[in-house]
Amino acid sequence: MFPEKRMRRLRKNEKIRGLVKETCLTKNDLVSPMFVDESIDQRIEIGSMPSQFRLPLSEVRDEALEIVSLGIPAVILFGIPEKKDEKGSEAYNPDGIVQRAVREIKDEVGDDLIVITDICLCEYTSHGHCGIIENERVLNDPTLDLLAKIAVSHAEAGADIVAPSDMMDGRVASIRMALDESRFEDTIIMSYAAKYASAFYWPFRDAAESAPEFGDRKGYQMDTANSDEAIQEVYLDIEEGADIVMVKPALSYLDVIYRIKSEFRVPTAAYNVSGEYSMIKAAAKLWDIDEDKIIHEILTSIKRAGADLIITYSAKDAARLLSI
Ligand code: PBG
User: Fold this and answer.
1) Ligand 1 shell residues, CB under 6 Å
2) Within a domain: 15
3) Average pLDDT, the chain
């Protein structure tokens, strides 16, 4: 008798499919990005990212309240400073835009919202690179001190999690040491461990005014062709003290997410980046696609690959769709 095994039995109806569902996306998996711009007093929509905004400081409290009310557990903050310089000194100014935004959010919602801050220099440097520059080269070790200073200033402002996205070698250890010395031993480090030199970041650079003035980021971000290298990066970051490791971007790197989760079994984040978001928005403008279903399918695939948490510009839309 053939077929003996009928796979369709378990697909018969919604309830049966629900019983055997392997991956369930929930609001608890989501992190919503937030851009705070020091130079504006009204929100500005980001041209290449429909429905995403740069917010003035005066709007971050309301945004935080909205995110909490949608049941999203965390935000990740990016700052756009008024002044940029060679060393990105606004990044570690205790009264810088991110530090002030963290204080406003924490004052408004306290522990109802986990505040993650991105640790990087590219939004703060005049040249747009993620470190100190000498003869058009990004210097690794002198950059580490600055990254540690940024992390401590964010922790002082009240950040729960700091997320270094610069890809310098040794930054997790240097941030961990600096945090511990300043008595922030409970501040969590989520490292952008396997961050690729991806073409999918273009809308973000537009949003955060962080495009490099010369060259590219291939001297510090990973080659898009490699995945053994991602294993090494993650191994090193865990050794140096990372609590959560991240793969970025997500969709073209589902295999990397899968490998890392299988290999290390540590909390793993995925960043569903700006270009991935903008492509769906562009398709929605051109054709009558079911955007909600596409978002749900994409986020579920990232979770199925092994991500425990997903940073996504679709977080608010997804939270509206999800019941839990
Ligand atoms: C900063 C940083 C970038 C992103 C997050 N942190 C840009 C970059 O590396 O150029 C990209 C996020 C996105 O595209 O959504 N280094």
Assistant:
1) 118, 120, 122, 130, 165, 201, 204-205, 210, 273-274
2) no
3) 97
